[in-house]
Amino acid sequence: MTQMQPSAGAAARRIEHARQAEARKLSRRSFLRVSVFAGLTLSVGAMAAGFLGFFNLRKPTGFGGVITVVPARVPKAGEEPSRISEGKFWLSNLAGAQGDVAGVGGTGGILALYWKCPHLGCTVPWNPAFNGAAVNFPGIVGWFRCPCHGSTYSRAGIRVYGPAPRPMDTMAVSVNSDKSLNVNTGVITSGGPDNPLRAKPYSG
Ligand code: FES
User: How far apart (Å, rounded) are the C-alpha atoms in residues 139 and 156?
Assistant: First the structure.
């Protein structure tokens, strides 16, 4: 029996039909791929969020984050610096050009000094009894003095003695309307002779 040949129109319709079926299959596959990828991305994102949340890294508190210092912990101008242990810094409230042993000037205010010694990283304590006469600054009593190799810094963190390569580093400080301070321990600037000029005016 002779098989009937489809007309040209019917053949064109069949081809078009097959093309549309193939296109539908391809778009289903693409959709599946996108869905799997999106699912994976969401899972990884959720895991990362959980990790950050667990270790409290998204908004760090304590060292690395912003420390709010209440006014009662802020020293009065000219008083001994306050140790703020949770942020690893000293708060110095300079009276005028106090601590400016390099002669750069300065009108006083608040400095947050990172307590890590720029030499080899020891924690630098405040020594209220150390007499500057021992380091060629007679008449000034009270210095930051590193216990490891003796680097000695003024209350503005200026190095006057010892192997440290620079003054103590400073942290970003802002003064709030209630006289508390925000010290950003994640924003640390290398110490320099201009440390006294970095002090934030403060009328506590
Ligand atoms: S670590 Fe401070 S002077 Fe060496």
Answer: 16
Residue whose CB lies within 8 A of the most ligand 1 atoms, among 113, 146, 166, for a mutation test: 146
pLDDT in tens, 149-202: 999 999 999 999 999 999 999 999 999 999 999 999 999 999 999 999 999 999
Residue 125 lies in a domain: yes
122 C-alpha to ligand 1 centroid (Å) = 6
| Domain-located, residue 113 | yes
Structure confidence by residue, pLDDT tens digits, 120-135: 999 999 999 999 999 9
Whether residues 31 and 82 share a domain: the answer is no
- Distance from Cα 88 to the centre of ligand 1, integer Å: 16
Give the residue numbers spanning the domain of 182. 66-198
- What pTM was estimated for this model as a whole? 0.73
Report yes or no on 204 lying in a domain: no
- Closest alpha carbon to 154 in 113, 202, 203, 200: 113
